[in-house]
């Protein structure tokens, strides 16, 4: 379902994204002018693995789940994407089908830059490929870090690092975008390939140590510096 926002309103929402703010002014303007806003109901599918590429998306409000499911229905959850994160850029580069499923965890508002308009834009101004390359390499860095952490780190620092990563918008900003993460423990367990019991035990330890406050389907970062220390990091995001 489409939603109406003025160009000015849309630009204000997108400027919360560090990637968008760093993009050339001409690219910002053309994205705003050529893109559209979509509203999804909670549980509504946006695309499925194997679907044709239909463009680039940014979460303006709500929550999107990115993952995959086995033939038996078991879900592998890669990320829970909150505002103002972009996704869907892989197919922009390789012109291949979608790599994963994407659907709304709850009622959500998305910015959508359709594939045809984006291809025309890059044909006219190929210098903008660099900006989209930066978006892609940011995701690649995060993927490499996740693989390394899964191989080398115990559960507790892995959990702490993922919470800090989510609070920082998956690298979207250099600091903390939010202190309250609306993520159930079951989702966190799937993202990290850990058991629900392990997640619960570690989070309770973090709460006892004053780093977190736990509520139903929410995790509040009470002390980012303590959480960073538990993650084995030198400093927390600002």
Structural summary, described in words:
This protein has 238 residues and is of the alpha+beta class. The protein folds into two domains: 2-139, Jelly Rolls; 153-230, Winged helix-like DNA-binding domain superfamily/Winged helix DNA-binding domain (Arc Repressor Mutant, subunit A, Orthogonal Bundle), CATH 1.10.10. It is built from ten helices and twelve strands. The strands form three sheets. It has a five-stranded antiparallel β-sheet with strand order 1-2-9-4-7. A four-stranded antiparallel β-sheet has the order 3-8-5-6. β5 and β6 form a beta hairpin. α8 (185-192) crosses α9 (196-208). The mean pLDDT is 91.
Element layout with pairings:
Elements: E1 2-3, H1 7-14, H2 18-22, H3 25-34, E2 36-40, E3 45-47, E4 55-61, E5 64-69, E6 75-81, E7 86-87, H4 90-94, E8 101-104, E9 108-114, H5 115-124, H6 129-152, H7 155-167, E10 180-181, H8 185-192, H9 196-208, E11 212-215, E12 218-221, H10 224-230
Antiparallel strand pairs: 1-2, 2-9, 3-8, 4-7, 4-9, 5-6, 5-8, 10-12, 11-12
- At the fold tier of CATH, the topology name of the largest domain is Jelly Rolls
Report the top-level CATH class of the largest domain: Mainly Beta
Main beta sheet: strand number and arrangement?
5 strands, antiparallel
Domain unit count: 2
Q: Indicate the low-confidence ranges by residue numbers.
A: none
